[in-house]
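Project standup — Tuesday

K.O.: blocked on the structure for the chain from last sprint. Re-posting the sequence here as requested.
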Amino acid sequence: MKERGGKGGSQPSVNERYTQWKSLVPVLYDWLANHNLLWPSLSCRWGPLLEQATYKNRQRLYLSEQTDGSVPNTLVIANCEIVKPRVAAAEHIAQFNEEARSPFVKKFKTIIHPGEVNRIRELPQNSKIVATHTDSPDVLIWDVEAQPNRHAVLGATESHPDLILTGHQENAEFALAMSQSEPFVLSGGKDKSVVLWSIHDHISTLATDSGAGSNGGKSPKAGIDDKPPSENPKIQARGIFQGHEDTVEDVQFCPSSAQEFCSVGDDSCLILWDARTGSSPVVKVEKAHTADLHCVDWNPIDENFILTGSADNTVRLFDRRNLTSNGVGAPVHIFNNHNAAVLCVQWSPDKSSIFGSSAEDGVLNIWDHNKIGERSGPASKFAPGLLFRHSGHRDKVVDFHWNSHDPWTIVSVSDDGESTGGGGTLQIWRMIDLIYRPQEEVIDELEKFKSHILTCSTP
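H.V.: unblocked you, prediction finished:
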């Protein structure tokens, strides 16, 4: 099995932090589900919403199983029941066994994956289509609903991807993104390149071959057409972009354009690209951090803001209108709170100033950059902008994903070492809304609650 990064924090402090966290779960969380994973998953992503009921929703979740070779590596499609806000009883949500599987998470389908699944990304136009990265130069595309369910036993043949995207010259393991505006895919790899594809290139070819019309596959619900299982159709790249001097670790599209994107790498650079102007960088931000960059995200609501996370333990906020000063990166703000390398950053899909960051220290922080400078006096010991610390994981938090159908609900996953039992931990959680709602609203609600308590206690 492959690790990304090292351990975060010493074990006694991790256990103490976890014990304290668990005692506070009924106070800090509206809902939480803890699910033990036999094998670690390096990625977790929400899929389509399946059903809405009075007290809970049912939704697909994409995970993986990174095994030791005794059984195949897999891409897992699960069904999750997500309890709606203000439904769960506080005394129930902390009553879980760390070694048990959650009743809220049920495996629905298993795909036997060619190699380890390092990264999963869903197609926004049709979240039944996912892309995966493994230890190879190719990006694999899967129509997860059409794929047969497989039994993962030693010696089982690998599932056939519906599409293979070629263009990298060396392994591309982590950097992977899907465009919000069109079915475009972006990848980065050890060949120091950023590669762009359009899934339309496959759909339109099939449509022409079958005489299915000339719409070029432009349906917003575009899927992958049927094919004989022995075939693995391949798509060549729309463009290959050179500018990094070391491995590209993460990529992200501009939310409103499949032609504009950014990338970060082990050269400590953040690069902005525009496919319409050629294959060279539009802007190259040298020394965006003081160490390797691991992750990047582009604000889906305010497109001026870009987040980066690094092995220097910091998260940095950049404004694309003013990226550099004196030739090096000039972040709007540097967020300091993690004690180890930052592995994942992601903006909230609902609030333009809210984002999360997870790291090798086992912590997932939620930030609000509008809160910078608000706290003073005794509370100033808190990191500026820090809204919430999720300390439910006991090892490195390798991925998390905000739920666009339930915006304050987050799924997060940790790759647990032997000291915490091995395997992985999946958590689906929602902080109590008193933490993020406007202060006046919260005070008003608490005053009403206080009046109610006083009334109830009157003999």
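K.O.: great, moving the ticket to review. The chain has four helices and 31 strands. The first strand starts at residue 29 and ends at 37.
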